[in-house]
Hints:
single chain; four-stranded parallel β-sheet; 2 domains
Amino acid sequence: xxxxxxxxxxxxxxxxxxxxxxxxxxxxxxxxxxxxxxxxxxxxxxxxxxxxxxxxxxxxxxxxxxxxxxxxxxxxxxxxxxxxxxxxxxxxxxxxxxxxxxxxxxxxxxxxxxxxxxxxxxxxxxxxxxxxxxxxxxxxxxxxxxxxxxxxxxxxxxxxxxxxxxxxxxxxxxxxxxxxxxxxxxxxxxxxxxxxxxxxxxxxxxxxxxxxxxxxxxxxxxxxxxxxxxxxxxxxxxxxxxxxxxxxxxxxxxxxxxxxxxxxxxxxxxxxxxxxxxxxxxxxxxxxxxxxxxxxxxxxxxxxxxxxxxxxxxxxxxxxxxxxxxxxx
Length: 329
């Protein structure tokens, strides 16, 4: 079964396979939680499942804690944070959870993203409750499994299901998954200096939207392609790329990119069309219309007056339009 994803090129691209994404098992509806229940997320199992193939993991079940089981929580013990049983503190699967995570990391070579269960003492990505010596909770922790995941795979786009309810964070995460997947495909196909330069060129305005400094830094690195050892250069490039893309884009940054793209049309569209485009961009800046409105209008003009360079820009279509991720930002 194939999924079509719209780009600005005249011909349609086809995405033959779904993208592999890791996920906490309970979010798919698997009954693996401490109480034998689940936390099925309809956005993950519905909308995202049309584009992602999910690879489920439950570290607590994976280390043999059983279903149902005594719940665990994070507790500060001196300089350490341990995962212990809520009823019997002698139950301490911390080391087993970390070992399970390290084993699992070796199985994740093909995944392009990961969605974790928020607030979980094993899978929580941030602000997990840690109980201090007085038994009071502080939202300062990271789940034991999640901590190993984040440390072992720093390039991997990772998000919690709760944060996917935020339109900006949702769009940012999905965008990063698609970019990282394209990077993985590039490296598997055999990276060359020319391919690296082309990859950067195709993502130029997407990167610029996230960070002017990141854009300049990556541009300087790509300029060294062919002069520097390619594997080392590629490793440094993708590390900065993924860190740059992790920063959510603010409206003023989108406005800057849209104005740059409008410059390619100045010799083609008439005064009224240009004024309409400028007004639409301003309406987006003021929050009157969502980002999809100026994006749709500017793509309309580029269909009438194609520019080979702009037509390759992933900024104009970073993910399938059916996801409607730019309709709410």
